[in-house]
Specification:
alpha/beta; Hexokinase, domain 1; 323 residues
Length: 323
């Protein structure tokens, strides 16, 4: 089966051709990335991709969307596009379609990706369990959280959640200071305020204030760049603190969801893939008091697939239309 798979975020829309074999194997073509602000609508972006693809596209499409997918009209938080699901066949010229939340798509990717596309982070170095709950946590522009449940009969159930908006729980004096800084701007401080790409700014400035340093106003991209290159020791310290917080939050979500496996996803998680195993991530993941021994038995992986949103949208299509 041939189809188009699409992953739409606030800044970019990624398109690719995909093939789903009879055994369920998914082959993804070379992705094409278009800027959402360069196209008036999803339909015009679709037409631009169709032109790049030679003028003809398969009659099936899977679309991952950064936001809720229910309702008669889908609106995006960070771009002006709207999608009317009922009009997709007419506007795009397709016979079948699947709409899925972008992080639910990542969970579908976790369910289908081969074992060699997972990097071990913590816990026993063994494959993810074939039965039970797996939590999927992804720091990026926000903090995505989803789960997938393998029921043991070969069926996988997936759901996106708003777990990134759980309350942030400090575990030491530095995190108390981060929380105090954030509370000046937000009455309620969620985990997403500390464990996401933009959150590095608040962590960086909190550490600077503790040391009495005067620092330049840098955006999150500049701080992450300096941290990953090692050119700014304060940025490196902020990144280390981020890894600790990510471990703590991933452990909290695993506890809440009853997970027997955890996968870290998202663009930022992928950028930190070489650092996380050597950081304090694993220690904080397990630091759950009387449940520490139980947490130490949960395998924690990082998915290394370069396009989990596109791959996962195709997997969601296969799951929906094979029933």
């Amino acid at each position: 089966m041939d189809l188009v798979t699409v992953d739409i975020g606030g800044t970019h829309a990624r398109f690719a051709l995909a093939q789903i074999a009879a055994d369920g194997t998914i082959a993804l073509g070379e992705p094409v990335t278009l800027n959402t602000d360069g196209h008036a609508s999803f339909q015009t972006a679709w037409e631009a991709f169709r032109e790049q693809a030679g003028g003809a596209l398969p009659d099936s499409v899977a679309i991952a969307i950064a936001g809720p997918v229910g309702g008669e009209v889908i609106r995006f938080t960070n771009n002006p596009w709207t999608i009317h699901p009922a009009l997709i066949p007419e506007k795009l010229g397709v016979a079948r379609y699947t709409l899925v939340n972008d992080f639910a798509a990542v969970a579908h990717a976790v369910a289908r990706a081969p074992r060699d596309q997972f990097l071990h982070l913590a816990g026993p170095d063994q494959p993810l369990p074939a039965k039970g709950m797996i939590s999927v946590v992804g720091p990026g522009t926000g903090l995505g959280v989803a789960w997938l449940f393998n029921d043991g009969t070969g069926l996988t159930h997936v759901a996106a959640t708003e777990g990134g908006h759980l309350d942030f729980a400090p575990l030491d004096a530095l995190e108390d200071a981060i929380l105090a800084r954030l509370r000046k701007a937000h009455i309620r401080v969620s985990t997403e305020r500390v464990v996401s790409g933009p959150a590095i700014v608040e962590i960086y400035h909190t550490l600077a204030a503790i040391e009495g340093r005067a620092v330049h106003e840098l955006d999150d991209v500049a701080i992450w760049t300096a941290a990953l290159s090692g050119t700014d020791s304060l940025a490196v310290a902020a990144m280390d603190r981020f890894c600790l917080s990510l471990g703590a939050v991933a452990g909290d979500i695993a506890l809440a969801q009853g997970a027997s496996g955890v996968v870290i996803a998202g663009g930022l998680g992928y950028r930190l893939r070489h650092l996380l195993p050597q950081s304090g991530f694993a220690t904080r993941f397990c630091a759950k008091g009387r449940f520490a021994a139980m947490m130490a038995q949960i395998p924690v992986k990082l998915i290394t697939h370069p396009q989990p949103g596109l791959f996962g949208a195709a997997a969601a299509f296969a799951a929906e239309h094979s029933r």
